[in-house]
Design a protein that fits this description.
single chain; mainly alpha; 434 Repressor (Amino-terminal Domain); 0% strand; elongated
Length: 109
């Protein structure tokens, strides 16, 4: 069943991690971008780029955000990966449809 879920395309674009930071994290903590960036030991510009969705969350940034928010890095990486995959499919989905699909499971003996 898990494999079936992994094959399903989300109905809408997944939320970018920067939107979560902007709409939920900073207001809940009552912190400005400047103060949050200072606490994470990054520049204000770096955090602003993520919040504005012009940059994604790298593994290093996921470590910082995970520590800062107390929820670990994996959630942040997973959110970024879902967002990136959706965007990639939007860009090249038509081309992907033209690639023949081979089942590796039936050949694994």
């Amino acid at each position: 069943m898990r494999e079936e879920l992994l094959k399903e395309r989300p109905q809408r674009c997944p939320t970018h991690p920067g939107e979560i930071i902007k709409e939920d994290v900073l207001p809940t903590l009552k912190l400005s971008v400047t103060q949050a960036a200072k606490e994470m030991h990054i520049t204000r510009q770096t955090l602003h780029r993520i919040i504005s969705k012009s940059h994604g969350v790298s593994p290093e940034m996921a470590l910082r955000l995970g520590r800062f928010c107390g929820n670990g890095p994996y959630l942040w990486l997973a959110m970024q990966q879902r967002y990136d995959l959706f965007q990639a499919e939007e860009r090249i989905g038509d081309d992907i449809e033209k690639i023949p699909e081979h089942s590796m499971a039936s050949r694994a003996h």
